[in-house]
Amino acid sequence: MRIITFAGMPGSGKSCAARDLAAQLSCKWVDLDAEVESRAGKSIARIFAEDGEEAFRQLEKDALKGLVGTTAPDLIISLGGGTLQDPENLELVKEQTYCIWLNTPLETIAERLWAHGDIGARPLLASAKTKKELQELLQSIYESRKPSYMAASKEVRIRETTSV
């Protein structure tokens, strides 16, 4: 089996989908953000605060290269929301993995993130003080990332479900 990666915006469901698929296929799952935190010995928010986004992106690139370069079979990776913005990461994912883009409606993502209450732990979203600001910020980020998601992935559109 090739390595499967999940791409998408923060809160799109990448980690849940990757974890569930790995369980169904009885294979290893790695969350790239958690891998970066483990390697750095500190949270992503702390990496951004102390070392900056550029340092985080280098750690992310190194972790991705390390995971994709392993000879371990049957690996599923949930990527960070911005991982594919780096041209080297984009090419690596395109060439070495089967990438699935979870294209979740931004309203759904905003609801999830706002309800979860961890906006401050997400450095690129931490400036949002209201749900409306969060939705506007997500829209801006989405527009900048969409070309990378489209280039690397097979798109899976997530629809909101309504209760009956």
Attribute tags:
about 160 residues; alpha/beta; five-stranded parallel beta sheet
Outline the structure in words:
The structure is a single chain. The chain is of the alpha/beta class and 164 residues long. The chain has one domain: P-loop containing nucleotide triphosphate hydrolases (Rossmann fold), CATH 3.40.50. 54% of the residues lie in helices and 15% in strands. It contains seven helices and five strands. The protein has a five-stranded parallel beta sheet with strand order 2-3-1-4-5. Helix 2 crosses helix 4, helix 3 packs across helix 4 and helix 4 packs parallel to helix 5. The longest helix has 22 residues. It is globular and about 45 Å long.
Task: Give a summary of the structure in a few sentences.
The protein has 7 helices and 5 strands.
Estimate nothing, just give the exact number of structural domains: 1
| Beta-strand residue percentage | 15-25%
Helix content: 40-55%
Strand runs, count? 5
Give the helix/strand class: alpha/beta
What value does the Rg take, in angstroms? 15 Å
What is the mean predicted local confidence, pLDDT?
A: 88
Our measurement of the CA-to-CA distance between the termini, rounded to an integer number of angstroms, reads 39 Å
Strand order of the largest sheet: 2-3-1-4-5
| Stretches with pLDDT under 50, minimum 5 residues | none
The CATH homologous superfamily corresponds to P-loop containing nucleotide triphosphate hydrolases
- Major pleated sheet: 5 strands, parallel
CATH topology: Rossmann fold
Q: SSE string, helix = H, strand = E?
A: EHEHHHEHEHHE
The DSSP helix count reads 7
The CATH class label is: Alpha Beta
